[in-house]
Write a structure and sequence with these properties.
CATH class: Alpha Beta
CATH architecture: 3-Layer(aba) Sandwich
Structural class: alpha+beta
Order of helices and strands: HEHEHHHEHEHEH
Radius of gyration: 18 Å
Number of domains: 1
Shape: globular
CATH superfamily: NADH Oxidase
Bound molecules: flavin mononucleotide
Largest sheet: 5 strands, antiparallel
């Protein structure tokens, strides 16, 4: 697979088939993804891979916690800026509307939207769940390194015929995750990621997200 094919075919999958993914495949993806660059070669990423019963147990613990806090805990970092300005606000709105439109869930049907959203906390059915953390001492540069690492994981997954779902939604359960995985206090839980085989028959996976045209965000001078 060419890099351009991996980039073009990577998209966020929100319905996976249960078919298992071998542990060796996940380990080889992570090992190669660690070739991602990082300022000063700090390699500021940390990953907790959950397979089989270990994955199911996290899903169970969150389901239990949801009984008292259906929308989760206050995350340890701002997932979005508190005051999202344009054009970002509209982009966020449009992708949400487009996603729920694939399943014909209208804006007014909050319970149906919440039900779908809460699938995040089941890794949308993916057999592999990964939780990514970063040391709290790290600054913007290292968060960017972590992002590059995550994209590399997602592209390598494509080469194995796998798809991914990066999930900040897991940041809404940081203390449940911390307790279960014994994440040290110096690590902040950034996001999770489901990895597996896409369920191509699920309408949500037909979502094709937009991108702003080049002239909106590129300045070229000659
Ligand atoms: C760090 C990160 C966290 C994300 N968290 C979630 C999430 O919690 N739930 C979700 O459904 N999508 C999540 N997404 C997916 C984005 O909504 C998606 O990348 C964006 O809409 C573009 O669509 P595409 O990935 O299909 O190209 C996340 C993406 C990134 C990069």
């Amino acid at each position: 697979m060419k890099v351009s094919e991996a980039v073009a075919s990577r998209k966020t999958i929100r319905a996976f088939r249960p078919d298992p993914v071998p542990r060796a495949t996940v380990e080889s993806i992570l090992a190669l993804a660690a070739r991602a660059p990082s300022g000063g070669n700090l390699q500021p990423w940390r990953a907790y891979v959950l397979l089989g019963e270990a994955r199911d147990e996290l899903v169970r613990r969150v389901a239990e916690a949801r009984k008292t806090r259906p929308m989760g805990e206050r995350p340890e970092y701002h997932i979005y800026p508190l005051d999202l300005t344009e054009p970002y606000k509209t982009r966020r709105f449009r992708v949400g509307e487009a996603m729920y439109a694939t399943m014909a869930i209208p804006r007014e049907d909050k319970p149906a939207r919440l039900k779908f959203f809460s699938g995040n906390w089941e890794f949308f059915g993916a057999p592999v769940g990964v939780i990514f953390t970063i040391d709290r001492i790290m600054q913007q540069g290292q968060w960017s390194d972590l992002g590059m690492f995550l994209q590399t994981v997602m592209l390598l997954a494509r080469e194995h015929g796998l798809h991914t779902c990066p999930q900040e939604a897991w940041a809404l359960w940081h203390s449940v995750i911390r307790e279960y995985l014994e994440v040290p206090a110096n690590e902040m839980i950034f996001c999770g990621m489901g990895i597996g085989h896409a369920d191509e028959s699920h309408p949500v996976n037909s979502l094709a997200t937009e991108r702003a045209p080049l002239d909106e965000w590129v300045t070229v001078r000659e």
